[in-house]
Amino acid sequence: MPKKDPVVDGLAKLAALRGVEDRAALADGLAPLLNDRTGYVVTRVANLAAERGVREVVPNLIARLEKFIRDPKSNDSGCEASLAIVRALIALEAGYEAEAVAVAATRYVRWEPVYGGSVDSAVSVRGNAAILLAAMGSTQAVRCAVELLATGDSAGPREAANWPARADAARALTMVGSDAAAAVLRFKLLIDDSDSNVLADCLTGLLSIERDAAIPLAVEMLTGDESARAEAALLALGGWRDARSFTLLHDHADRFLTSGSRDLFLAAIAMTRQAAAIDYLLDLIPQAAPKLRDAVVAALEPLRPLPGIADRIDAAVKEAK
């Protein structure tokens, strides 16, 4: 008789549970599957628990994450299962019962072999663990986020691209929303970062917390000589849900429309979703040169589902022709 494939067996059990409506019965079925030896199965169990809101398995998720952290050579390729568990704990609104493992997860490192050396596959686990601490209101959230923000990147043979964890740390500090969190974000912006995504998330957080007090630094970044900082400011201001965001961007239109950041500038304008911003972009279409016109239309594409916008875009393009 052929030997059973444990992965196939685990996935079959999980498939059978997808049709279970009773949450208690679903929890009873999911809990033992979190002890499966393969990370592939555990990943999907954690995802289903989060999807169905099965808070009863939070203790089991915590126990399995602790086991992964204790044994960095466990069967969890790419840290997919560890990451799925942390994200499930966030979705299930785990509280202080998950604080200790979340703190440990912010420092979890897992080296996996790649051609020419090894790579740290736990970067996203660390970043999401910081978000978990912020979500539960932990007093450890700021300290752990600061530690992640201070971690740089390293090249091979032991490669660690830590910028996603730094970006997540910035998001965690934004969730904390305190004066201390704002001070850390401001300090990070002042000393700079090698990745514009991190800068954008830091500025987004600072604008969210400090609002008026953060505007001078945003303008300084927007008008400075470093393109990475300017682009980070474009992203942050575009995503800032404040009536002033379009005005701050529009004031520097002449500069960005003739720069390599033109497309990002137009996308940032569209991201504000303000009526004045949409009118500005639509008015550009008939008078713009073909390449600029195409860039404006591309920036407006994500807004097509909004009422009346598709017809207005099509009318502006027709007028240009």
Spatial strand sequence of the major β-sheet: 1-2-3
Mean pLDDT: 95
Approximate strand percentage? under 5%
Number of strands: 3
Q: Main beta sheet, described? A: 3 strands, mixed
Low-confidence stretches: none
Order of helices and strands: HHHHHHEEHHEHHHHHHHHHHH
Our count of helices gives 19
Radius of gyration: 23 Å
Structural class by SSE content? mainly alpha
3D structure, described in words:
This protein has helices at residues 6-17, 23-33, 39-52, 58-70, 80-91, 99-105, 123-135, 141-149, 163-176, 179-191, 196-210, 215-223, 227-239, 244-250, 253-256, 262-271, 275-287, 290-300, 309-320; strands at residues 111-114, 117-120, 158-159. It has a domain at 243-321. The longest helix is centred in the middle third of the chain and has 15 residues, at 196-210. The protein contains 19 helices and three strands. A hairpin with a 2-residue loop joins strand 1 (111-114) and strand 2 (117-120). It starts with 5 loop residues before the first helix and ends with a helix. The model has no long low-confidence stretch (mean pLDDT 95). The radius of gyration is 23 Å and the shape is globular. It has 321 residues and is mainly alpha-helical. The protein has a three-stranded mixed sheet with strand order 1-2-3, with no helix packed on it.
